[in-house]
Design goal:
Length: 296
Amino acid sequence: MDRKFLPFPTDLVQMHPGLGILRFAALLAEGSESDDDTLDLMFEQMEIGALDNIAPHEIWLELERGLMAPAPAIMIKALRECGVLEIVLPEIASLWGVPQIADDPGEVDLGEHLLNQLSEAAKIKAPLPVRFALLTMNVGKSDSPREHLPSHYRHIERGAPRIRAIAERFRVPDACRDLALLALHECERVHRTSKMRAGPVADMLERVGAFRDPAQFALLMSVCSCDYYAYGGRTEPTYPKAALLDIALKACAQMDDGAPEDRAPADGTASQEVQEARATAIARAFRSERWSDETA
């Protein structure tokens, strides 16, 4: 990526000083460069109240610009280093220093993990809902009981109202909020998907709307994939759980459930009979896949 030095605030002198700080951070994510003196200047302007009395939706316009840039992690890192992140997104700033269980190494810092997640999202040119979900889906972990760390007991109950509050505060699109809430509830469950548990897999696919809204399910898979690869050391060309769930979806698509329409629940969800048939189809597909793996 070609980079150029962008002086601050000279090029942004026509903007509100606070928005100038945010715009500069967003431009860093687009490929501009900074130095310690510039970050010090951003900090000084923050300290004298440059961010006071700015409407949250105006702040969001700059945050969205940076999130959708080729290097969104650079924006978040710069905002944190100059103290602005703690003002505009305190829920996110509080993730640094909080441990999260990982395979290798045994723990990661949630703040640093967030930067890696956003970098993975940029690699696949993920849309805004995916990037917003990655930004916010761990906000319930910042104040997990210390005696449970690095596990995060009841973080979903803490995280859901915080995600809704962030979305309301910045007037983000409903699609961003909805995907973030879905990822909050389901991402860790997706990571635990197993060939040995066809019934729970069928239930999860129904619960996340994989049959009713394939596009939303695809976005969820993107979130989970970015989270998976953000831990580092993952070299598989495809997120393994997405590949497994694709097998399950294809098995369900091929089956003939034969369930009468009048026996389906009024809310559009699948009947118990259909779910049982799906679980059976998934179990058969998983067994066939396992046998093919063992004989390959």
